[in-house]
Amino acid sequence: SSLPRPQAWLLRLPTAVVYGSLALFISVLHNVFLLYYVDTFVSVYKINKAAFWVGETVFLLWNSLNDPLFGWLSDRQFLSSQPWSGTGLSSRAVVLTRVQALGWHGPLLALSFLAFWVPWAPAGLQFLLCLCLYDGFLTLVDLHHHALLADLALSAHDRTHLNFYCSLFSAAGSLSVFASYAFWNKEDFSSFRAFCVALAAGSGLGFVGATRLLRRRVEAAGREPGCPALAVDGGLCGEELLVGGKEAGSITLGQYLRQLAHHRNFLWFVGMDLVQVFHCHFNSNFFPLFLEHLLSDHISLSMGSFLLGISYVAPHLNNLYFLPLCRRWGVYAVVRGLFLLKLGLSLLMLLAGPDCPSLLCLFIASNRVFTEGTCKLLTLVVTDLVDEDLVLNQRKQAASALLFGMVALVTKPGQTFAPLLGTWLLCFYTGHDLFQQAPLAPVGSAQPWPEPPAPPPAQVPMLRQGCFYLLVLVPITCALLQLFTWSQFTLHGRYLHTVKVQRQNLSQAQTLDVKTV
Known about the structure:
Elements: H1 5-11, H2 15-44, H3 49-79, E1 89-90, H4 91-114, H5 123-152, H6 156-181, H7 190-223, E2 241-243, H8 253-261, H9 264-295, H10 301-329, H11 331-352, H12 357-392, H13 400-411, H14 413-430, H15 434-437, H16 460-487, H17 493-505
Antiparallel strand pairs: 1-2
Main location: membrane
Protein name: Major facilitator superfamily domain containing 13A
Subcellular location: Membrane
């Protein structure tokens, strides 16, 4: 009996499209969360300031620690010598485990998203519980989704192909930001609440459907000659034993951390990525401030809102152009080019000065777009580090989720440094202390606090000048630091090709020690 037409059409979708669609179900929720969670608790639920900062502090600690914790819990079975159901664990079984986890955690993420928009506990307690619950499920979904990128495909071409669809679907998901403006009303919250219920329902059902399709595709891959349904490099073909058996030694977290501490490219990468995370969040934190003090006389309020909205969508669209370049020149060269572009544009802006509104508008928007776009490309570099880690330490199976978790642990502090260092620098340059008047809104949120009182007239030119220096000197400093650390990173070109070949051959025989290459 033939399948119903819609079901048959869905089953024919390419794996890259199904994998990419998971990014849509994450981003429709997460962008709305970033924009409105603070405003909801401050303006609608009237949380007090002490409870707000306690919640944010606990959230900061949980946000940093849950990535490596969940990564270790997820990959522990793949690094252990314990047999799984009496046999070794194949690469396809690893992927199926991750897909199954996404099938559970995705709908739970949608439910935890819903918990924000209905008051069900004292505001302070609800704020703390909602943040930790939502971030916990978001971390689980992100870790498994990113780890699948490393596990589904081995070649750079296939990984950029998968990432291309992630960018396409993330851009579509960012449109929920524009749609949300039509429903957002602090006085009458019911229409926004209904909008959020619709988003959560669509996202939860999407996760269930996409993971079922992906599971069927992966199971079918082993039965079909040549694995046409999956990545063209055949990373999931065959049932080779990658974990388990007598020769696979167990590894403790302490041993893994010691191995990572000797992984030179990992250390240079996280140094560069820490600066990148800092710069991304600096741009998000200070975007409204720069618009207000540098461009408020020249652009309308609606134009400012449009710039903010487009800055969420444009990085994903940008990547649709950058990913083919990555296929041609390699991710390393494209990322280095973006750092040089950031440095060049910032120097040009510094020379032009603060009195060119059109150039300022272009620079503020492009600075955020290119910086966010670079963050999206770095996922591909982490998948290469997963390969190198596997080859260097002769593992039987890549610890994909754990390595993504360790990168997040080292780089997450950049989120905290951004507002702290930014407001200190502003105060240092201008004497204008934002915290004495109104705390700065966290990343990507609409401004929840009352507008700060206008500074004295004599201070306005100084504040404008200070904002301008902050706008251009931070990207210049970040670019210089990143160009130095990136120049020390050697996982590209011929060496990367060697690592890829060794990873593909590792299941057949232990090849040459990559350290000697």
